[in-house]
Amino acid sequence: MKSHRINPPCRLSRKLALLSGIALLSSAALAMAGEKVIRTAYGDVASIDAPKSQQLNAKNAQAHPFATARQRAAAKPVIWVDRDSKAGPAASAELTDKLVRTAGSAPGGDAPAFGNYLARTHFRATWDKLDALDARQGAAPDVSISQEKDGAHYGYTRTLGNYYTTQWKAAPWNKIGKLYFTKPDGSGSYCTAQVSSGTAVLTTAAHCVYTFGSGWNSNFLFVPAERYGEAPYGKFGWSTARVPTNWINQGTRRWDVAVIKLTGEQVSGIPVTSYVGWLGRAWNQPYSLFTYSHGYASNLSTQYTNICAGQTYDSVSEGTNVVVQGCDMTYGASGGAWLINYTPNSSAGNQVNSVVSGPHIGAFGTAWVGARFNDDNIVALCTAIGC
Fold first, then answer.
1. Per-residue pLDDT reduced to its tens digit, 175-199
2. Are 203 and 281 contacting, i.e. CB atoms less than 8 angstroms apart?
3. Is residue 32 exposed (0-12), middle (13-18) or buried (19+ Cβ within 10 Å)?
4. Distance between CA 152 and CA 312 in Å, rounded?
5. Contacts for 350 with CB less than 8 Å, ≥ 6 apart
6. Domains contained in the chain, CATH given
7. What whole-number distance in Å separates Cα of residue 187 and Cα of residue 234?
8. How far apart are CA 309 and CA 319, in angstroms?
9. Could you report the per-residue pLDDT of 89-136, keeping only the tens digit for each?
10. What's the rounded Cα separation, in Å, for the pair 268 and 249?
11. What are phi and psi of 191, to 5 degrees?
């Protein structure tokens, strides 16, 4: 049989064909996950809609895998997986353009004045139980004042969040809650999330919505202001979720942001914003800001939130669009809001500027990181979902 020499153009064609095949395989994998890609001026966003079996209403609410307090208590906090960004001169150079884009923000909003009255009316047994608990609540647990041990050596203070009676019914604490879901392996898990738009959109970490390397999580259920396993403002299902396509492809910290559109409360049908209102958002802000970071950290308590307050900073080891803050919270705090312009008991300020992603490199339990909200992540996501 006569052999034929492959000339350079043929070799190039083969390379192009191989690349096209890889692209087709990737597309096929996305299609198998029931996913579609939304292209925005700020970047591509992966989207998935809730199947009919997960669209909650009064008829099927009790069949949900996280319907009861006991079922929710069995959910395990998401374990942080090392998704470190590439370090080196390139990452350092990227940090130099951190203020090139125009800083922006969106305001938060209050629920109607009768929001708490409405919740107490709809969930009276829960409120009565929490009132009884508050009446016999003892002294607050000790808070921790620590010194961060890596990077810029900024100190931080940890305080209690919605532990207090005066806080779990008020802004910003009542807008932050637990997000429950089923992972691709079938296990139940939870993260922290918060209402961050007047259109009932949650912000959280992408790893709470899409498990890197495995696929989309499912059965999302949000419980705002959850405290001691109780749901004082009800339970909310989901209609659609979005993550950056770069999270699916890379799984690095700068892309670890997600948004979820909530449906009405599973029994009353009322939007979450009518009970608790929503937090503001901020993007393209400086890396160094005084920030209050919230989370249901399992190493402290799964029953209420804790808050780490301190200065954020950038790090060459983490790369561009990643912010670092001293904090000793760990699993379960994933997705929790990093709030700037912190204004207790008010809808003013309280802007989500990042969400908890995982430990700072080499500083587990002393510092953590979050994706710096910017055009590429939160603005693209909000454009795609309608914040």
1. 999 999 999 999 999 999 999 999 9
2. yes
3. exposed
4. 9
5. 108, 171, 172, 279, 280, 339, 341, 342, 343
6. 34-134+142-385 (2.40.10.120)
7. 23
8. 23
9. 334 434 444 445 799 999 999 999 999 999 999 999 999 999 998 888
10. 39
11. -135, -175
